Amino acid sequence: MNIENPILPGFNPDPSIIRVGLDYYLATSTFQWWPGVRLYHSSNLADWRLLGHALTRTSQLDMRANPSSGGVWAPALGWHDGVFYLVYTDVKNQESGFVDAHNYLVTTTDIEAPGQWSERIPLNSGGFDPSLFHDDDGRKWLVNMTWNHRSDNKSGGIVLQEYDSDAGVLIGSPRLIFAGTRLGGTEAPHLYRHGEWYILLVAEGGTGYGHAVTMARSRSIEGPYEVSPRNPILTSRDEPTLPLQKAGHASLVDTPDGRHYLAYLCGRPLPGTRSCTLGRETALVECRWTDDGWLELVSGSHHPAVTVEIPEAPREPVDQQARVTFDGPALPQVFNTLREPHHDTWCSTSERPGWLRLRGRESPGSRFDVSLVARRLESHEATCRTCMDFQPAGDQQFAGLVCWYDERNFALLGVSSVDGAGRYLALRHASGGRYREGTPVPLGDSGVVHLEARFHGVHLSFAWSEDGEQWHDLPDRLDAGFLSDESCDGFTGTFVGMSVHDLAGNQGHADFNWFEMS
User: Fold this and answer.
1) 187 tagged catalytic
2) Is there a single domain that holds both residue 121 and residue 223?
3) Are the C-beta atoms of residues 41 and 57 closer than 8 Å to each other?
4) What is the CATH number of the domain that holds 62?
5) Beta bridge partners of 409
6) 332 located within any domain
7) Is the pTM of this model over 0.70?
8) Are 226 and 336 in the same domain?
9) What residue numbers bound the domain in which 490 lies?
10) Could you check whether the bond before residue 6 is cis, i.e. omega within 30 degrees of 0?
């Protein structure tokens, strides 16, 4: 049967896919968004259910003050002898040509049980994109890229080191096994076995429009590795008209009937632009082994395609959660917070039953205590709405519907007040760190207000309503591309959600009845 890419729309980069029996599991990066590492399950490669997240405790992941587009990079999922393994990077800094990146391992025997991943085991630092390989002889090997701050390329290549699972430490010295090809930017290594060969799959060319998947192989795990004559296996770097751009950072999985697929990241630019507001998404492509032992796409091309054929299997309905309510004790897992877990001191579904109460903390420009709850934008055509009840005490308090990329790039359709002049609605907008505020719209002294943001291709517009039926457009219109990876020089794509800010430190609160994305 045929399905369409991307299989995971919206910000879902760096896919790591495995099969355990008849079940497929896939992990994606989460960067500065909490919780860490999204986990998905599928029984047919077509329908993917969000299981939850692997990193749910600050003892596993502490991102306070992490930079935007830092945090969790490129998790690699594995399974061996009944145990699931997950290695991941926590990036603390990317300034002045350096990277402070620390790699960790967590494990579990039950990937579907929430909160069951172990405490983290430190592995190494100085590079990112770790992956753990379980060899046939029982030995385990870690591969990761190493950062070279002295080189314009920055990638020092792929290093290999043995992991002692009994002691929980790396042993021996790291060995450089692959310096990369002329594409440069060598990263995202995964090791596999195919017959007598060790197969090294890597990403090269950078994670933007020059991205590519390349391959090398060796009869010894420590090398030397010979480069595939078919490289790049997968890329869109040479065809800017393809609907799926940035193809790269792949992992390999087989099906029970012997077919092979790459899960890879891609980007869908806004029409007529090179701006990817949805971030980097996850797609599939079928590949095969050649008679001489190399990988190639079954299409005979090296380009990604929107349509992919997968084995026939029953479809499984997946709840799209267009409108999310706050009736339960927990924050719905479709939502994420910035750098830290939500806590009932600032984020509660119990203080006012049926509503989400957010208590205002620092400004949208902070990297510390920001009361913001948001979900991924998944389409270039989307209407996002919420219903808010908020009584601000002055202009130091404001709350509303937020379209968010990072602390320097956002649009907040918010309610505030000026002493003695009552409540008003205005669009608060920052682009590249420059803040602007739109024309204020007077509101009544009390009552709920419905807020709307509409994404229509390159256009982003806003509206409001008192009753949820009669809507009033705001004159403020933005180019949606300002919330793209390219404009913001980041890796995370657009989120839309709810935020509350109290610059006076009094924790004034706003209540939200529901959130809708359609």
Assistant:
1) yes
2) yes
3) no
4) 2.115.10.20
5) 406
6) yes
7) yes
8) no
9) 323-517
10) yes
Structure tokens at 237: 């770097």
- Strands 459-465 and 449-456, bridge-based pairing: antiparallel
Measured distance CA(419)–CA(412) in Å, rounded: 21
35: preceding bond cis by omega (within 30 degrees): yes
- Residue 461 CB burial class (10 angstroms; 0-12, 13-18, ≥19): middle
Q: Are 265 and 247 in contact (CB under 8 A)?
A: yes
Confidence band of 420 (pLDDT split at 50, 70, 90): low
Q: Choose, from 90, 129, 162, 187, the residue flagged as catalytic.
A: 187
Last residue of a domain, one of 183, 212, 231: 231
* Contact status, residue 17 vs residue 190, Cβ threshold 8 Å: no
pLDDT tens-digit map of 116-142 = 999 999 999 999 999 999 999 999 999
In whole angstroms, give the CA distance from residue 31 to residue 90.
Answer: 8
Of the candidates 335, 409, 344, 397, the residue with the CA atom closest to the CA atom of residue 372:
335
* Nearest in space to 215 (alpha carbons), one of 291, 145, 155, 294: 294
Strands 397-406 and 409-418, bridge-based pairing: antiparallel
Strands (E), 219-310: 226-227, 234-235, 245-254, 260-267, 281-289, 295-297, 307-309
In order of 331, 391, 395, 434, the CA distances from 428 in angstroms are 26, 18, 12, 11
Q: Are residues 340 and 209 in the same domain?
A: no
Q: In this structure, is residue 244 part of a structural domain?
A: no
pLDDT digits (tens, 9 = 90+) for 429-465: 999 999 999 999 999 888 999 999 999 999 999 999 9
d(Cα 93, Cα 27) in Å, to the nearest integer?
23
- Enter the tokens of residue 112: 């579907």
The 10 Å Cβ neighbour count of residue 476 is: 17
Distance of CA 130 to the CA centre of its chain: 17
**Token pair of 396, please?**
């130091």
**Residue whose token pair is 């992990």:** 27
**In this structure, are strands 33-34 and 336-338 parallel, antiparallel, or unpaired?**
antiparallel
CATH number, position 330? 2.60.120.200
In a domain, 4, yes or no: no
Q: Clarify whether residues 194 and 331 are in a common domain.
A: no
Q: What percent of the chain has pLDDT over 70?
A: 100
Tell me if residue 488 falls in helix, strand or coil: helix
161 domain residue, yes or no: yes
Q: Which of 208, 231, 254 is the last residue of a domain?
A: 231
b (16+ CB within 10 A) / e for 9-21? bbbbbbbbbbbee
485 three-state secondary structure:
helix
**How large is the greatest C-alpha to C-alpha distance in the chain, in angstroms?**
79
Would you call 4 a catalytic residue per the annotation? Answer: no
> Pick the catalytic residue: 14, 378, 485, 486?
14
Distance CA 510, CA 514 (A): 13
